[in-house]
């Protein structure tokens, strides 16, 4: 079944086409909507074609980690909700949820998207914690890029709640935004046979040989990489994939 | 006797603004979004599909399995830790019981119909919003049903009987509060969900049911309209 599907997909790719009619390096339509949850301090909805992901941010005041006493904490969580895909199951996060969360986390953390020094309230005692949660509503492929985009959009949308005498009043939002330094964007390149493509739909994801998620900042610095899939990649493969990612990242960033 | 006007200016028997859409999740067999005031519920239905683990299968009929979940950022205060809490498990269970009487799974032995309810934004009334969304999603999935189920909270704030309490009303401190989520089968008037927090006298409770019933018939119309709306678009 999968083998036949793969043959059909490759047949289309030979003609520089895909069976939903797109070019190899073409994303489906992308729509970003901000402030989709009044309960969160920041939130966003990202639609890439039929794929739909919500990201929300909660802020809290916590003790900083002992090894970074002058920094606020950052946490990214993701749950592959069984609502979004018939193949996802409930229960504690599986490896796919964990990988998704960690890849989004790395892009934001390593690009220093948020200036965590500015989140410190009292050295070693109190700092803001930024908790980003990713919830897919519908998985029609390419959750990686949708999740990363939703997370960054939600970061952009975040306003601090009022904080007085050690107590947070979540009901009152200030107009102060998070200290943002960079806006990382992730692009996942899929390799099927000798072809590279972006923004895979479910059927394409099932037959990949390899994938590479590349997160880039606005100055084209790579801030996170994650190779997936069962086949190896040559250095030449990786080089080509990064070139495509850089081109596409600029396109995605315009949507933010 | 100080609750003379509702915090958000509504009439005592008036719900918050309701917005409904059917068919919002493409991969699901049926789905719906139900928004009431600032509470938003999504429901997705998958199935009938084979049920694992096997010992849970019923050779006589399919089973209905509901799962209620608040997204981590959906609470009005701190982040809600992901994973099922005791509260979420109880709500999942009562949601199942609220929907089961209208659902006919006799043709699907050993199968399960899964209902997933997710809330991205909450302001009280979440289990009722979830049940309203789930009922539309089940119908959208083409599951055989005797009727839909409509749900709303009724209750008492101070000495006033009200429908659809919001968080501010639930937290009212100047007088007694009763919060009574109910679900009803519109065609028979039977209740399939009944819970209560707070204090109320029997005659007041019966009066609250009366007001609730009228409200639920209105909500049912909105649910049906959303379903018709979806299938109208598909025909065009």
Short description:
The complex is a heterodimer of chains A (256) and B (236). Chain A has 256 residues and is of the alpha+beta class.
Q: What is the CATH class name of chain A?
A: Alpha Beta
What is the overall pLDDT average of chain A? Answer: 96
CATH architecture of chain B: 2-Layer Sandwich
CATH superfamily (homologous) name of chain B = GHMP Kinase, N-terminal domain
CATH architecture grouping of chain A: 2-Layer Sandwich
How many individual domains of chain B?
A: 1
Portion of residues in helices of chain B?
A: 25-40%
* Beta-strand residue fraction of chain B: 25-35%
- Characterize the overall form of chain A: elongated
Count of beta strands of chain B? 10
Radius of gyration of chain A: 19 Å
Give the strand tally of chain A: 12
Q: Kindly provide the radius of gyration of chain B, computed on alpha-carbon positions and rounded to a whole number of angstroms.
A: 18 Å
Structural class of chain B: alpha+beta
Give helix and strand order of chain B, one letter per element, not per position: EEEEHEHEEHEEEH
Helix content of chain A: 25-40%
**Number of helical elements of chain B:** 4
Overall outline of chain B: globular
Would you kindly provide a written description of the structure presented here, covering whatever features stand out?
The complex is a heterodimer of chains A (256) and B (236). Helix content of chain A is 27%, strand content 35%. In chain A, a hairpin with a 5-residue loop joins strand 11 and strand 12. In chain A, the strands form 3 sheets. In chain A, strands 1, 2, 3, 4, 5 and 6 form a 6-stranded mixed sheet that branches. A 4-stranded antiparallel sheet of chain A has the order 10-9-11-12. Chain A has a single domain, classed as GHMP Kinase, N-terminal domain (Ribosomal Protein S5, domain 2, 2-Layer Sandwich). The mean pLDDT of chain A is 96. The longest helix of chain A has 19 residues. Chain A has 256 residues and is an alpha+beta fold. In chain A, 43% of the residues are buried. Chain B has 236 residues and is of the alpha+beta class. Chain B has a single domain, classed as GHMP Kinase, N-terminal domain (Ribosomal Protein S5, domain 2, 2-Layer Sandwich). Chain B contains 4 helices and 10 strands. Chain B has a 5-stranded mixed sheet. In chain B, strands 6, 7, 8, 9 and 10 form a 5-stranded antiparallel sheet that branches. In chain B, strand 2 and strand 3 form a beta hairpin. The radius of gyration of chain B is 18 Å and the shape is globular. Chain B starts with 17 loop residues before the first strand and ends with a helix. Classes of the chains: A alpha+beta (256), B alpha+beta (236). Chains A and B meet through strand 3 and strand 6 of A and strand 3 and strand 5 of B.
